[in-house]
Design a protein that fits this description.
Helices cover about 35% and strands about 20% of the residues. It has about 280 residues and is α/β, with parallel strands linked by helices. Strands 1-4-3-2-5-6 form a six-stranded parallel beta sheet, sandwiched between helices. It has a three-stranded antiparallel beta sheet with strand order 7-8-9, covered by helices on one side. Its EC number is 6.3.2.1.
Length: about 280
């Protein structure tokens, strides 16, 4: 009978470095999957992609306070360490990096990564101006701490993926950033740790976001009028009970606004709130 794999757990930098040195003794390649815990099947898909891309897999679990505004859900963000560790053990993860906020941001911490380019595209940054500076700072720290060959990020947070990719390239951080496809529930809702916040009625209504976006993509691919198609999609989303922050078609690499669908790769991106829960999604056009 095969004994279950137990990942190493590091909560201090000396332990992290010691375990990483052991993992690399045979010149193994290392993949990092950064998470904030509350792991679901979407996260597990990132882990499985990481295992295909590298010899050893490190998963970080850290709820990063610098990417939450004061009115957001840092204090109530789901923390499910025991269940997370069990899931990662069953996937054969080699190391869990689980620092606390005092280690990541010790007293006197005074450095922050300032990001532009995709971080100032007028999407998430319009509504969460604090967000990408916090993400970039913590990801830069994680990449410096773990020194992975590759780091896996989900495409659900599409603008974040582009910001991190640009930052890693600009700062020569040494890791190749790889995007992983969105994992969805059977009814189309993009998997997210925040889905746990939805009431039963909200959960029943939530897939309307994906359905509306699919309809917009279908119409744009058929060549229907750009502005009226987006306006009709926004109305569908609003009628389903969502407060819409944005529904926009953007260049898939630069996130520059588009006024028509042509030869450039394009992405439809949306951010909404239902009840008190903010949901984001995107689809290739």
């Amino acid at each position: 009978m095969t004994m279950p794999h137990t990942p190493a757990v590091a909560r201090t930098l000396p332990v992290l470095r010691r375990v990483l040195d052991n993992l690399r003794k045979r010149k193994s390649t290392v993949a990092l999957v950064p998470t904030m815990g509350a792991l679901h099947d979407g996260h597990i898909s990132l882990v499985r992609l990481a295992k295909r891309r590298a010899d050893k897999v490190v998963v970080s679990i850290f709820v990063n306070p610098t990417q939450f505004a004061p009115h957001e859900d840092y204090g109530s963000y789901p923390r499910t360490w025991k269940a997370d560790a069990t899931k990662l053990a069953s996937e054969g993860v080699d190391l869990i990096w689980n620092p606390d906020a005092r280690l990541m941001y010790p007293e006197g911490f005074a450095t922050r990564v300032q990001v532009e380019g995709p971080a100032t595209a007028g999407l998430e940054d319009r509504f969460r101006p604090h967000f990408f500076g916090g993400v970039a700072t913590v990801v830069a720290k994680l990449l410096a701490q773990v020194r992975p060959d590759v780091a896996i990020f989900g495409e659900k947070d599409y603008q974040q993926l582009k910001v991190v990719t640009q930052m890693a390239r600009d700062l020569d951080l040494g890791a190749r950033i790889v995007g992983a496809p969105i994992m969805r529930e059977r009814d189309g809702l993009a998997m997210s740790s925040r889905n746990l916040y939805l009431t039963p009625d909200q959960r029943k209504a939530a897939p309307a976001l994906h359905r509306s976006m699919k309809d917009v993509v279908r119409r744009l691919r058929k060549g229907e009028d750009f502005a009226s198609t987006l306006a009709a999609g926004a109305k569908l989303i609003g009628d389903a009970g969502f407060k819409l922050d944005y529904l926009e078609a953007r260049h898939a690499e630069t996130l520059a606004p588009l006024t028509q669908i042509g030869s450039a790769p394009a992405r439809l991106l949306a951010a909404t709130t239902i009840g008190t829960t903010r949901l984001i999604d995107n689809m290739k056009i």
